[in-house]
Every structure is written in structure tokens, then in C-alpha cells.
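Input (structure):
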């Protein structure tokens, strides 16, 4: 069933070119700004650096660090998405998934073990899975589970905490349960395609149109299209994350660390702001291990890979703002409940 009214080929081509042109302009500006920030930070004379306030320097440093940390995974995610859409045989993925909805979501949530990409790279990959026939709810399950249930994240969490206080086990089980809960909730939605942005709905509607081009040519076109969609969102999200980190006092967060309830929400707020990659977040939060309770650490390690400033900017390329608000609230409540439960048992 077509999701949109038929679009005349000429108009569709023109609209596609216009959107691509705007995306390329946005991408070019984003790259230029990042290069400018790096040049100022690295090449400018010391006198120029002294003219900048500490807050401005911190903003540049924090924003650029988020971009540098995330960019390789975004590119890797785009390449995997192209592999799924262009090079995987038609229907291969759907044929090898269980038909039972619950078993199907469980298997999808475990795909992160085979595709060890952090949360940034999972957004373009989840877009590719929707275009390949997975439902919106199933793609959400993958999107939320994969950053936690991948071997790199599990190994780094073990190296940071070992088996202490059940942090590793709580992270794995908590991430698995929350991701499947989200998938189940959105699988019951009466109109799941309405959860997507109109632009991505149009992309889905034309996903199976015949394209007279070789696979290599289609891969190049898809890479250009995805990078122009993802990278501007990454730059904006990183800048917002840097701005909030400069404005939020970490001393205030630390003072809340010993309260079993407030500590959970304090570290969830920290995870939302710092937007750190799930593959290394365990080492980051290890420095807070002696200050915060185990439940707060678990809430940080579960909530952060699923929802943070940078991720919301990336996911906005695919999901409507209303969907993202709902998703943030549900994941936030579930992560808080998990953290409070761990604190109660500690």
C-alpha cells in the first residue's frame, strides 16, 4: 500500500535534487565549522587563546570531542546500512528471522552482538532495516539494544567494574528488557508509519522502486544521501551537548551522589548531557564509582546509550518530535526504575 500520493517522476527528481542540495550545503557548513574550531583550537597563537574565556574554550573542546568520538561510528553505521540495503540479497534478513513477534524482537535485539557499532552508527543502520522491511517497532528494538548488547560495550564494562555490585549484569539485562519493552509498545501502534518523519516516509514509499544503476553506483549515491542527512544532525547535536555541559555544574551532580533516589536522576541527566559513546562510557563513569551508588551507575550506563542529546539529533532525521518525546519519557522511566531497584538491593 502506498503511503503517499503518487509523485510525478520529474517533480520527484527535482525535489530529491533540492533536498540533496540543501543537505550538501548543511553538510559543507558543518564540516567547515568543525575545521574552523579545530584550527582555532590547535593553530591559533597563545594570545588568541587567552582572549577566549574558559567557557568558550570548553565549548569548542567538548563539542569537537563528541564529533571526533562519534564520526567513525556514524560512517561505519552508514556503510553497514548500505551493505544491508544494496548488497544483502532481497528478503534475506526477513527470511532468517522468526515469525513469532516476541521471538523476532528478541533475535533483533541480539543483532548488536554481530554488529558492534555504538549508538551513533545504529541510527543509519536502523533506517536501513526499516527500508529492508522491518517494522518501526522492531527497528526501535535494534536501535536501543545494540549499543548495549554488543561485545565491545560488554567487554569495556567488565574491564571497568568486573562483577562488582551486579553493574554489568544489570546493564545487559536492563538494556535487553527495555529495548524489547519499547518494541512491544510500538508494535501495538495503530499507524506505525506515522511515527516517522514525512521525508523518511517518502523514502520508504520509494524504497523498492527500480533504479537503473549498478550496485556500486547505488552504494555511492546512498552514501552521499545518508551522510548529508546524518552529519549535519551530528554537528548540531554535538554543539548542543557541548553547550549544555558548559552550563551544567558537575559539582552539583556530585553533591547528589549519595542520595539513593536523586543520584539515579543526577547520573541520568549527566548521561543525557555528555553524550559519550557506549563503547567507552564505562571508563568515563568509573571515576564517579566511589561517589555514586551502583543503581545510579547502572541508570547512567543504560539510559545514556539509548537517549542523549546527540542521539536525539540523529534520530530526528527519522522519527517525529512527538515520537522522540514519548520514547525519551518511557526509556527514562524504565531506566530510573532499574536504577532505583538496584539501589534498593545494594
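Output (sequence):
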Amino acid at each position: 500500500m502506498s503511503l503517499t500520493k503518487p509523485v510525478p517522476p520529474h517533480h520527484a527528481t527535482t525535489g530529491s535534487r533540492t533536498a540533496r542540495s540543501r543537505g550538501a550545503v548543511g553538510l559543507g557548513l558543518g564540516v567547515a565549522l568543525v575545521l574552523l574550531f579545530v584550527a582555532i583550537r590547535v593553530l591559533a597563537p597563545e594570545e588568541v587563546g587567552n582572549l577566549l574565556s574558559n567557557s568558550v574554550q570548553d565549548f569548542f573542546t567538548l563539542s569537537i570531542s563528541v564529533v571526533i568520538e562519534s564520526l567513525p561510528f556514524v560512517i561505519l553505521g552508514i556503510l553497514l546500512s548500505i551493505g544491508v540495503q544494496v548488497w544483502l540479497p532481497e528478503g534475506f534478513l526477513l527470511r532468517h528471522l522468526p515469525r513469532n513477534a516476541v521471538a523476532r524482537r528478541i533475535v533483533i535485539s541480539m543483532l548488536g552482538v554481530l554488529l558492534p557499532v555504538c549508538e551513533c552508527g545504529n541510527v543509519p543502520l536502523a533506517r536501513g532495516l526499516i527500508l529492508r522491511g522491518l517494522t518501526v517497532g522492531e527497528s526501535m528494538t535494534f536501535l536501543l539494544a545494540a549499543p548495549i548488547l554488543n561485545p565491545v560495550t560488554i567487554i569495556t564494562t567488565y574491564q571497568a567494574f568486573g562483577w562488582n555490585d551486579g553493574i554489568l549484569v544489570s546493564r545487559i539485562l536492563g538494556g535487553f528488557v527495555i529495548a524489547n519493552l519499547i518494541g512491544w509498545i510500538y508494535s501495538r501502534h495503530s499507524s506505525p508509519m506515522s511515527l516517522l518523519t514525512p521525508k523518511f516516509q517518502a523514502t520508504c514509499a520509494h524504497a523498492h522502486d527500480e533504479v537503473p544503476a549498478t550496485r556500486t553506483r547505488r552504494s555511492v549515491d546512498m552514501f552521499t544521501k545518508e551522510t548529508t542527512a546524518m552529519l549535519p544532525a551530528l554537528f548540531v547535536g554535538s554543539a548542543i551537548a557541548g553547550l549544555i555541559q558548559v552550563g551544567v555544574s558537575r559539582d552539583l551532580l556530585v553533591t547528589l551522589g549519595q542520595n539513593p533516589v536523586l543520584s539515579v536522576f543526577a547520573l541520568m541527566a549527566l548521561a543525557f548531557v555528555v553524550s559519550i559513546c557506549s563503547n567507552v562510557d564505562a571508563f568515563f563513569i568509573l571515576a564517579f564509582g566511589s561517589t555514586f551508588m551502583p543503581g545510579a551507575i547502572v541508570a547512567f550506563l543504560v539510559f545514556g546509550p539509548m537517549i542523549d542529546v546527540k542521539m536525539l539529533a540523529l534520530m530526528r532525521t527519522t522519527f517525529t518530535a512527538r515520537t522522540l518525546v514519548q520514547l525519551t519519557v518511557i526509556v527514562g522511566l524504565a531506566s530510573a526504575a532499574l536504577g532505583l531497584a538496584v539501589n534498593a538491593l545494594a
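Notes: The chain is about 75% helix and 0% strand. Residues 250 and 270 are 8 Å apart (CA to CA).
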